[in-house]
Amino acid sequence: MESDKTKAAAASTAEATKTAAKKSTAGPGTTASKNGTAGSRSENRDYSQEATKEGALYKFFLDGLKDMYFAEKHILEALPKMKEAATTEELQDAFEDHHLVTQKQVSRLEKVFKSIGESAEAKKCDAIIGIVKEGENIIKETEEGSMTRDAALIIAAQKVEHYEIASYGGLVALAETLQLERAADLLQMTLEEEEDTDLDLTDIAESSINFRAADEEEEDDDDDEEEDDHDYDME
Ligand code: FE
Ligand code: FE
Ligand code: FE
Fold first, then answer.
1. Separation of 92 CA from ligand 2 center, angstroms?
2. First to last CA, the chain
3. What's the whole-model pTM score?
4. Gap from CA of 116 to ligand 3 centroid (Å)
5. DSSP 178
6. Which domains are present in the chain?
7. Which terminus, N or C, of the chain has the lesser number of Cβ atoms within 10 Å?
8. Model confidence band, residue 54 (pLDDT cutoffs 50, 70, 90)
9. 3-state helix, strand and coil shares in percent for the chain, rounded to the nearest 5
10. Which ligand is nearest to the CA of 127?
């Protein structure tokens, strides 16, 4: 299992190199770069790092990094709680694995900050606080030891991954627009890890947990019917 993961990681790194160039023209960075070149600087098209760093787009990029630095640390605190709440060993393992991946992502973000000569700083991300809170509500609202809880936890976790995918996708595009190549490469690695995690969670849900949660539902219905019959017998 471990070796499969290593292989998968190596494959996704190779894929990162291949796809990095392709992705550079797409995404929000394209529109944003137009804004960046408009106005008083239009005659000065020097994209040296010093010139880049004065721009509003660079500031927006840096804020985005700080947002994700906060988000990853918040996720790091949430994952052990999700693991503890999960019913199946399979989902517990998935959350544990992603906890390790997330630790690496926090360090990788620190490298991104360093690569652009900034210090690593966190800026409160309201979105991740909300998404994680929804996950905590799901734990309260579902029965311990049930498959329904796992089905619901997977969806909660996927909401986290999708927020990360949208954020890192935007950051990669911005880094490329700003010609911060090292930052773009590092962010692309994390983006692909989040995408892989999202797909793994889908596999876990669709291979068994969703069906078992549906069976659980039928069993509950059967129980209700039996109780109903019992009531009628009493009368
Ligand atoms: Fe992450
Ligand atoms: Fe945010
Ligand atoms: Fe993640």
1. 26
2. 58
3. 0.74
4. 23
5. T
6. 50-234 (1.20.1260.10)
7. C
8. confident
9. 85, 0, 15
10. 2
